[in-house]
Amino acid sequence: MSELDDELMQRFQKGDEGAFTLLVRRHQQPLINFIARFINDRDSAEDLAQETFIRMFKAAHRYQPGRARFNTWMYHIASNLCKNELRNRGRRDRYRVENVVSNGRDADGDTEQVDLIASAPADASFQPDVQLERKELRKAVQKAIAELPEEYRLPLVLRDIQGLSYDEISKVLELRSGTTKSRINRARLMLKDKLKSFMEPL
pTM for the whole thing? Predict the structure, then answer.
């Protein structure tokens, strides 16, 4: 996959703007999901994803295939934009824990909202109590992630939700490998602690 990204970037550097359009199509949804999970704001996530691609477009001449993975470069730019966004907004008072997307499956024709975080695949169940329990668990996980300090939340999302390797995360965040692993482990412990009271009865 990274080889294709490099090939598309090289084509774009030679003047093929359609190659960059293909890159955007390949990475747009995962990037929006990453940003939405990090800043807890779906609407702003789409704007920040667009800004990420604009910055990549402008800086494409500096990209060196093989030196760093395309994903690493993209998430590095996006994470910096996310940090700026969180610093520039009123933070806590405007903070939303609403990572939702529309799946358009509502029986009445209305848009149905589905959580983005912690929606691991599970067998479909139409029992109201089971659905309610799952919804409450997803909300609890969303809230717990949103409450993590930025320095722990970002590496956790990159590792456990986006699936980046420790080395890739270290490059994205410009951290030493040991620091990256330490922060992710700490974030998981903090998350476990926040969810302890919720999980005990289960």
Answer: 0.65
**Residues in CB range of 195: below 8 A, 6 or more apart:** 140, 141, 144
The CATH fold of domain 1-96: Rna Polymerase Sigma Factor; Chain: A (1.10.1740)
Phi/psi at 173 (5° precision): -95, -5
CB 115 within 8 A of CB 142: yes
- Residues near 153 by beta carbon (within 8 Å), at least 6 away in sequence: 38, 145, 146, 187
109 three-state secondary structure: coil
Q: Alpha carbon of 25 to those of 16, 91, 109, 118: distances in Å?
A: 15, 31, 28, 24
pLDDT in tens, 121-158: 443 443 444 555 666 777 778 788 888 898 999 999 99
Say how far apart CA 193 and CA 38 lie, in whole Å: 20
Residues in the chain: 202
